[in-house]
Model the fold of this input.
Amino acid sequence: FRMIQGFSVFSDYIFVNSPGKNSYFSRKGDLIKETKCPPELIPCLPVGKNYLTRDYSKSFERDINSHSMETKIILVGPDFKTKKVLFQKNLDTAYVNNSKTGQKEAWLFPAFCSYHVYNDKIYIGLSSLENFLFLVFDANGNELFEIKRPYEKQAIPVILKETILKRKYQAQTGKGYMD
Done:
């Protein structure tokens, strides 16, 4: 593999997606088959005869001052052509405006969208300031139902906030928080 972008374990095989190819293995690790796929379809997962993948807005399509990125979850057919966009939303990824101070602040828990396949059903999960939900579709992209979980905002304990800020600083700078 050049780089593993995603994998999933199904009842009768293991699926591995890497740029340009999909590999299918037996549960014991024997190669069953490999298929070519467009390198930009990463990560992708099989669902029925189709594949599920994501697409982000390209940097040249975004406002340079914006801290949001358009995320799309897309169902593509066996020919890898788009059949249906199942989810599309601008998600805040790094900063949030503090309404009290009018300043941009690092967002400790940025919006997150993920997807998985189980028993030929598609599960798209979203957690953001506005929502915590799952959208459930069949293998052809027909929405079956939605799971929405109401929640109340809670204060983040100071020690957790400091730990997250330290990790973000280290990831962004390669230096210790107090260096």
Observations:
- The chain has a mean pLDDT of 81.
- The two ends are 38 Å apart (CA to CA).
